[in-house]
């Protein structure tokens, strides 16, 4: 409700909605699912990250947080402006490396976002 995650706290992380409570989703799945989600693409200004919400086939609600070229480029620009030594993303293997035109464009945009 009101885009507030209601997952129970996970003792290992000690915070609600931690990655210990969820699972990784491939970027291709996210890009296919976001446009048909309940919420559409949402943006959290504090995290500088997009997210969306959907209901699965058994009626459970889910919230998916991810990085896209916009959020990665903001983080890369921050690193550069502070003179830090580098930036990386969690798992480049989650990008879609198929030969589909849309997938190639999305993957290229993600890698380009790392170099402001």
From TrEMBL:
<dbReference type="GO" id="GO:0009313">
    <property type="term" value="P:oligosaccharide catabolic process"/>
</dbReference>
<feature type="domain" description="GH18">
    <location>
        <begin position="1"/>
        <end position="116"/>
    </location>
</feature>
<dbReference type="InterPro" id="IPR017853">
    <property type="entry name" value="GH"/>
</dbReference>
<dbReference type="InterPro" id="IPR051887">
    <property type="entry name" value="GH18_Domain-Containing"/>
</dbReference>
<dbReference type="GO" id="GO:0005615">
    <property type="term" value="C:extracellular space"/>
</dbReference>
<protein>
    <submittedName>
        <fullName>DIAC acetylchitobiase</fullName>
    </submittedName>
</protein>
<dbReference type="Pfam" id="PF00704">
    <property type="entry name" value="Glyco_hydro_18"/>
</dbReference>
<dbReference type="InterPro" id="IPR029070">
    <property type="entry name" value="Chitinase_insertion_sf"/>
</dbReference>
<keyword id="KW-0378">Hydrolase</keyword>
<keyword id="KW-0326">Glycosidase</keyword>
<dbReference type="GO" id="GO:0004568">
    <property type="term" value="F:chitinase activity"/>
</dbReference>
<dbReference type="InterPro" id="IPR001223">
    <property type="entry name" value="Glyco_hydro18_cat"/>
</dbReference>
<dbReference type="GO" id="GO:0006032">
    <property type="term" value="P:chitin catabolic process"/>
</dbReference>
């Amino acid at each position: 409700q009101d885009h507030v995650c209601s997952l129970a706290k996970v003792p290992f992380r000690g915070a609600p909605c931690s990655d210990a409570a969820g699972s990784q989703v491939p970027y291709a799945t996210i890009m296919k699912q976001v446009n048909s989600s309940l919420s559409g693409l949402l943006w959290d200004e504090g995290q500088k990250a997009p997210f969306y919400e959907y209901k699965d086939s058994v009626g459970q609600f889910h919230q998916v947080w991810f990085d896209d070229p916009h959020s990665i480029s903001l983080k890369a620009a921050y690193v550069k402006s502070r003179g830090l030594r580098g930036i990386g993303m969690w798992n480049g293997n989650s990008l879609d490396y198929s030969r589909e035109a849309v997938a190639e464009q999305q993957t290229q945009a993600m890698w380009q976002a790392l170099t402001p």
